[in-house]
Amino acid sequence: MADFDTPELKEYPEIPHIHEGVMAHSKPFVAKEEFQQALGFPGELVDNWEQVALDKMQELTGKYRSFQVFLDSCVKCGACTDKCHYYLGTSDPKNMPVARQDLLRKVYRRNFTFAGKYFPKLVGAVDLTREVLDDWYSYFHQCSQCRRCSVYCPYGIDTAEISMAAREIMDSVGVGQKYCNEIIAKVYKIGNNLGLPEPALADTLEGLEEDIEDETGVAVRLPLDVKGAEVLVVTPSADFFAEPHVDGLMGYAKVFHEAGISWTLSSHASEAANFGMFIGSYENMRKVSLRIREAALDLGVKRIIMGECGHAWRVAYSFLNTLAGPFDFLDPNYPVPQHILEFTHDLIQRGALTLDKSANDDMVLTFHDSCNVARASRMGSKPGGQFTIPRDVIRAVCNNFYDMPQDTIHEATYCCGGGGGLLTDDLMELRVKGALPRMEALKHVVEEHGVTHMAAICAICKSQFAKIMPYYGFQMDSIVSVHQLVSNAIVLGDKQ
Ligand code: SF4
Ligand code: SF4
């Protein structure tokens, strides 16, 4: 199956002994010239790349105060060293968060601090060389920007911010990552990550309407580009065809049907994902976000609801208003934007849905908190809503639910191993090894409680788990969408 060994699942997680350089070979494919240029970056490594990189670093430390504070304030306490799933899964010491940060910090020190300029050896400062750039390319693409390490750092240093800046610097000298940059270029050209054009999207949605009617006898619509609809739903394009994502999309449609609220998808904003965040480029993040604004204005909707996607919810929750706002043309009675789980949760609280929990009795569920939802956003009006709302919804539609161990959920959740722009087959070894801590936690509830399925609310988590679970002996279809569970349990026509 692969030219690497899948780590062994232990009963209790173990902190591995270090193995220097074992993941130095892991690098994603480099973006081609046409995709670099589509995003406004040089097509290939520029001649004076060292100076361009340092200029960019200076620009970013000036623009983002947090970036400079993070570079200046690490005291090497070591609290973060065993918190990264990529270190736990690979044992490469450069996957310890502090060591990853230091790859960039030592160049920053050499060029932008007094001690680094005059006593470089004393403070571990080094010049920016091709070897250093190669290390950056390798190890800043072994960080899924999950922010778990920042939770344990007494100074709140966020390695995700440093890895985003490093990727932006690399893009600015012409060394971008193929997977992310090609996808962003596709969104500009066609509207979604998958390159699914409007006629294909319309056909797909029609097919799903037929499937629901065949199965339930009820005509549930999945509308596209309907002007004057109340709600615009922006969802990851994986929801349009991949398993288990598509079952979640059918769940959204059934919820809107039962609520009697008109809604529409948009062919212009047919993608919730925003890979501009993964490459640290606010300019590209803004351009992708603007498509949502344009679609909302064009369709004349009153509300925007985001589908199940982790980083898309972070971008929407934390940045949409500043990047693409103001959204003063929407109904002020609703948050901008809302998450589909907030919407469904509210309907459940108000008794607006009839649910038959026994429809999910063939499953014993657990729930994987997605990093960007858990550590970079919120849901609902109460602190911690991002943890309680998905669980409330699952408990409302299932009889059998058990959480994984406390130190692996909520704020302490482990990344699926494929986030942050790493969900590409050229990084398969990293993805499999990085999933180790989550797989160990899953094994625990499988053995303790007979858990058969894990639910998630992120397109990347779902795709990653479907692919890597078989490496650890789990079935690929044991990952499910939360709205797939809602879809199974909802009794259609009951509230009409
Ligand atoms: S942000 Fe996540 S992936 Fe990156 S170093 Fe920290 S724990 Fe590891
Ligand atoms: S926990 Fe924070 S201060 Fe301590 S080594 Fe890690 S990044 Fe540095």
Oligomeric organization of the protein chains: single chain
Q: Which structural class is indicated by helix and strand composition?
A: mainly alpha
Low-confidence stretches: none
H/E series, N to C? HHHHHHHHHHHEHEHEHEHEHHHHEHEH
Number of strands: 7
Q: Level of helix content?
A: 40-55%
How many separate helices?
21
Arithmetic mean of pLDDT: 96
State the distance separating the first and last CA atoms.
51 Å
Strand content: under 5%
**Anisotropy-based shape:** globular
Q: What compounds sit in this structure? A: iron/sulfur cluster
The strand order across the widest sheet is 2-1-3-4
Q: In this structure, how is the largest beta sheet organized?
A: 4 strands, parallel
Nearest-angstrom radius of gyration?
Answer: 23 Å
Protein architecture, described:
This protein has about 500 residues and is mostly helical. It is built from 21 helices and 7 strands. The protein has helices at about 35-40, 50-65, 65-75, 85-90, 95-110, 115-120, 130-140, 150, 160-175, 180-190, 200-215, 245-260, 280-300, 310-325, 340-350, 370-375, 385-395, 430-435, 435-450, 460-470, 480-490, and strands spanning about 230-235, 265, 305, 340, 365, 455, 480. The strands form 2 sheets. A 4-stranded parallel beta sheet has the order 2-1-3-4. A 3-stranded parallel beta sheet has the order 5-6-7, with helices on both faces. α12 (about 245-260) links the parallel β1 and β2 (about 265). α2 packs antiparallel against α9 (about 160-175). The protein is globular. It binds iron/sulfur cluster (2 copies). One iron/sulfur cluster binds near residues 84, 86, 100 and 149.
